[in-house]
Design brief:
The complex is a heterodimer of chains A (298) and B (438). Chain A has helices at 2-32, 39-59, 64-89, 99-121, 130-135, 147-169, 171-181, 183-188, 193-215, 225-240, 245-265, 270-284, and strands at 137-140, 143-146. With 298 residues, chain A is mainly alpha-helical. In chain A, strand 1 and strand 2 (143-146) form a beta hairpin. By secondary structure, chain B is of the alpha/beta class. Chain B has 16 helices and 15 strands. Chain B has a seven-stranded mixed beta sheet. In chain B, strands 2-1-3-4-5 form a five-stranded parallel beta sheet, sandwiched between helices. Chain B has a three-stranded antiparallel beta sheet with strand order 11-12-13, covered by helices on one side. The chains are: A mainly alpha (298), B alpha/beta (438).
Amino acid sequence: MLTAFAILTDGLVYAAYLFLVAVGLTLIFGVMRILNVAHGSFYAFGAYGSAIAVGMYFDRGLPAAGGFLLMVLVAMAIGLALGLALERGLLRLVYGKDEIIVVLVTYAAFLILEDVIRLIWGPSSYALYQPLGIAGTIDVGKLVLSGYDIGLVALAVLLAMGASFALKHTRWGRLLTVVIFDRELAAALGINVTLVYTITFVIGAMLGALGGAVMAPKIAVTLGIGVEVIVLAFAVVAIGGMGSVGGAFVGALLVGESRAAAVHLVPQVELFVIYAVMALVLVFRPQGLFTRAQPRKI
Amino acid sequence: MRHQAYPPTFVLAAGLSLGLSFFAAAGLHAEEHAAPVKIGFVTFLTGPAAAPFGIPDHNAAELLVDSLNAGKVPAPYDQIGLGGARIDAKFVDEAGSAADVVTQFRNLVERDHVDVVVGYISSGNCLAVTPVAEELKQLTVLDVCGTTRIFEEKSRHYVFRVNPHATMDNVAAAKYVLDKIKDISVYSGINQNYAWGQDSWRDFRLAMKDLAPKATVDKELFPKFFAGEYGAEISTLLTSNAQFIHSSFYDGDLEAFIYQAGARGLPQRIPLVLTTGESSLWRLGSKLPDGAIIAARGPHTFFAHDSALNTWFHKAYVDRFNEQPIYPAYDLAQSLLGLKTAWEKAQAKMGGRPATEDVIVAFEGISIKTPSTTVQMALGNGHQGISDTAVGTYKFNKADNKPEIVDIVRYPAQCVNPPADVDSVPWLEGGMKGAKCD
């Protein structure tokens, strides 16, 4: 019973981590049809920014709530700056080009940003350990749950609900939905597609940086953290369906729970199970769980 | 027959030319003797293993190359460079796939024409470059990597490794655990899912089987390298019945695991046995609870024997980089000083700059004085080093705000390494016959 409970909670925590990383990626793809490899850099910049700024904040003994708020603000600021710079400075130059070209451009940006991280913060690793201690723990029999992990799950659920609400019930969300379904029609209807692109990319960058910022307390913030994340995020987005926020949520849950079950019951297949889930879904739904198969335009 | 009489100016010119050619030849010989030795150093300069391993390794290389070239290293290493020839260092990043690493190795050999390659942290990369070094006939000194497979799968001619392999670490850890934790019946392990983690766990498990046959394994976890999130693994270990947890985690993986496990009370409840733990102590500080069992893959840093060489190395490193040298820095020192010892032994025998084959002959089986201990090239037909080692218990000194190791136990080289003619696994499976622990 305890093992089943542990699988459920561990799966939820891992799913929250995956969703926080993948939601920005899928949003950018949905609207702009860009498979943004540089999303891993947004995550890494968010983690570094959070580890440095929030670490300094907590070192001064300031109120804990302010530290958590600062974590979000730092991610927003980094996402805004990086997103704008990348979209306005680089990506707008390749709009309309072959999708492979655009992927290669984002990959180049990713490599450049990895070096920028090294230039700014050097090769040392950084730790933001205070939030884990502040959030406390909850004992369930022999199992000890981290309050911070529960907070991560809550944040992921809130984000999913917020995104769903914003897409369906706000004017901006409806405009975005039109662009997602048919950008040519959207342009014909007078929607400023260029502005939608810029805003979407910046929001996606902010979400990527937020993923890094909130994960910083759990990891050693060091060179290369963006690489690992981007591979997992792609798997989740592929399962859910490229461009579907709901799909990313369900994809993250599927992967999270499958991995947790594997670690507890058959640890030898832990690595295999993530990609097995992806392969299984794609065999039956090549377009992912939540994306409709689209007729090819001629 | 009439002898031709040469004019005196002709004779003078000829004599002068002959004399000049003689001096030129002598000069050429001297220049050849003093031509720099090109060494390619390969370590992680980027990526997650850079901060905890690659940079200390690189720093130690930079420090030693500069100091050796200036003749500032204490005896027996006070001769300039290698046998009087300055070292010309080229640093290469180990980051990338195994294929990238092999390509970089080939570039060092075929494009840069290095005399020696020193390096590699990842066991996977050591396994990848070793056959290529043999194919290219390139003298290569492997550095931090610890997999036993290098010299046990096949005999090597051009490849050496001064630093002992993982069997030593795990046998010593098993002995220490059984000495310090009484009545052990169940234990678990969490190790990285690649050559290093798998070999470490195998050796530890086999050593435990020898030393405590009734103890059983509860959980065996192998998360992927650089996994980052260990929530499920920590829950699994929390709900296990283990009396201790073995791990050969290193770099960011070790630190992330400690942050997450510490927040959920795992190390406070079940002691951790960290065979590479020393490398992260200065960064973890008070985040690692007291009581963790720590080793340094040899008697390095906290465990180092007192010597003028160690005092110099430690001070020079701290003065230059303003941080403590951790065991990857000591590993590099052992590798480079091992090469220097072999090179100069070969040079003394040959009476001039030694060829690769001369260095290989000199390297096989030699004894090397290093900052922390003495290494004997005893395994793998004299290509693999063994040394004594030590294990201790972690304690954070709050007053001085620095990590400490207490309750240190030392193990002689012949106690924790297999004999020369036996591979690690058969030795462990056979009950560690021939071990000399007194």
